[in-house]
Write a structure and sequence with these properties.
heterotrimer; A mainly alpha; B mainly alpha; C alpha+beta; A: 3 helical TM bundles of succinate and fumarate reductases; 4 helices; elongated; disordered N terminus; C: alpha+beta; Ubiquitin-like (UB roll); Fumarate Reductase Iron-sulfur Protein, Chain B, domain 2; 2 domains; two-stranded antiparallel sheet; 10 helices; 36% helix
Chain lengths: 126, 125, 242
């Protein structure tokens, strides 16, 4: 009996995590739309009004969580399209590394923007 | 000496259509995600909240509200077809995949119409 | 007696014409299959037309071709089912495989993928070689699916129908995955460790996007997508619980 090379593990986790993140997104996107758009339908939207109504309980957890999960799901989805295009392993590795950099940058900037709403001031200005 | 120009399978049946639409809507949502972040990033520009207020004002004009509806349709498809994919990964409805796809479209269409009716009273915005 | 027109995509590597369409009118009897019409063309009209066929009864899997834009076995396709109102039938070589001549394709990529999943029974070396035969004990339900997976006649129609195979030349493809299941599900087989490395790789089972083209095209009615989904779930269970 030959030893398994376990080359499958790398292909398995992105596949599974895409589905797990999808399930989280189903909940988080609905919560996000409800909190941000439907709870105060018809009221004028200004920075001040948004800050006032987001300063509550678990709302920040929903948005920070959504940010991380949505960026993973989105960029892993882009990688899936490249997989389907039949990109070589080397090319895919370079592209994946690039996506990780873009993803981390997006999460940092996104969290900064969220802090402007949820903590009344951002970590840094662009 | 095999011929170079073999034909790649592009046979569009229900399952291929679902897969292809899932890719397309996925890309549209990624594009929107970054558009969304750029709009919101106005609060961390030097102009700060004032730039945000101006932008929100521009984005609540009729053309953008219509674009919001289109975006909602795109997200609905991606979400419902995503549920279809996960159901089939769990081993359910594999024998009924076509009916499942049309169910996705029907439920999505109904949800879109329903939300349009629900939002109609606020259409003056 | 009726007349139909076969519109065939011709290609001959020895002349410089490239691929072109040629039409042949032939008489058919009620109940004739497309292969019958093709053989009449070769016998009566044009001896240079190349296509593969052997058993004429859907067992050898030689005469897979694209009939009216969908891959089918010519010997299992009734002329009356596919002919247009004007009696036209369009024939092309299988997609996703390079054309060698007329309706004959280069099968190499298909067999390469098939051989990657070690498509034979690997018995447990600890169990002594039996005197007569190695018995398989399986519940009837489990046996049903394994038996369906063994119905494959290697006609390459699923390979030609799969859009992922067309995009990614490294993808194992539906047939290799179904055959892998046939051995994975066999209680006498101990080859899982070897096969798992191929099935779980980026070119393996995860590349299937459940488009169902393979299942809809399979002339033997093998539930290919369902079988691939079973392989995926077995690998998920293994990765998480062991």
């Amino acid at each position: 009996m030959m030893k398994s090379t376990h080359s499958g593990e790398r292909a398995f986790w992105p596949w599974l995590l895409q589905r797990v993140s999808a399930v989280f997104l189903l909940v988080l996107v609905v919560a996000h739309l409800w909190i941000e758009h439907f709870m105060h339908l018809g009221q004028p939207i200004t920075y001040q009004s948004v800050v006032r109504r987001l300063m509550r309980g678990l709302f920040d957890a929903v948005d920070y969580g959504l940010l991380i999960v949505v960026v993973y799901h989105a960029l892993n989805g882009v990688r899936n399209i490249w997989l389907d295009r039949g990109w070589s392993r080397q090319r895919l590795w370079v592209a994946s590394t690039m996506l990780w950099v873009i993803g981390l940058a997006t999460v940092v900037v996104g969290a900064d923007i969220l802090s402007a709403f949820l903590n009344t001031r951002p970590w840094f200005y662009l | 000496m095999a011929q170079r120009s073999y034909r790649v399978s592009t046979l569009y049946r229900t399952g291929v259509l679902a897969w292809w639409l899932h890719r397309l809507t996925g890309l549209l949502i990624v594009a929107y995600l970054y558009f969304h972040l750029i709009v919101l990033s106005s609060v961390v520009w030097p102009g700060g909240p004032r730039a945000f207020n101006r932008m929100v004002h521009d984005l609540t004009t009729p053309p953008f509200i219509l674009a919001d509806l289109a975006l909602f349709a795109v997200i609905l498809y991606h979400a419902l077809n995503g549920i279809r994919i996960i159901l089939m990964d769990l081993g359910w409805f594999i024998g009924a995949q076509r009916r499942l796809f049309w169910t996705v479209l029907a439920v999505g269409g109904a949800a879109l119409l329903g939300s349009m009716v629900a939002l109609l009273p606020y259409a003056s915005l | 007696m009726e007349r139909v027109t076969l519109r065939i995509r011709r290609y001959n590597p020895d002349d410089d014409n490239g691929a072109y369409w040629q039409e042949y009118s032939v008489d058919i009897e009620p109940g004739d299959v497309v292969l019958q019409a093709l053989m009449r063309v070769r016998e009566d009209l044009d001896g240079t037309l190349a296509f593969r066929a052997s058993c004429r009864s859907g067992i050898c899997g030689s005469d897979g071709m694209v009939i009216n834009g969908w891959p089918r076995l010519a010997c299992k396709t009734q002329v009356s089912d596919v002919a247009s109102k004007s009696g036209m039938i369009q024939l092309e070589p299988l997609y996703n495989l390079a054309c060698l001549k007329d309706l004959v394709v280069d099968q190499e990529p298909f067999w390469t993928q098939f051989s990657r999943i070690t498509p034979w029974l690997m018995p447990d070396p600890a169990v002594p070689e039996p005197e007569k035969e190695r018995l398989m004990v399986l519940e009837p339900d489990a046996f049903d699916l394994l038996s369906k997976a063994s119905d494959c006649i290697f006609c390459q129609i699923c390979f030609a129908a799969c859009p992922i195979v067309g995009l990614d030349r490294d993808f194992l493809g539906p047939q290799a995955l179904v055959k892998a299941y046939r051995f994975e599900a066999d209680p006498r087989d101990q080859g899982h460790q070897t096969r798992e490395a191929v099935l779980g790789a980026p070119e393996g089972v995860w590349r299937c996007r459940t488009t169902f083209n393979c299942t809809e095209a399979c002339p033997k009615g093998i539930p290919i997508t369902r079988t691939i989904q079973l392989l995926k779930r077995a690998l998920v269970r293994e990765a998480i619980f062991s």
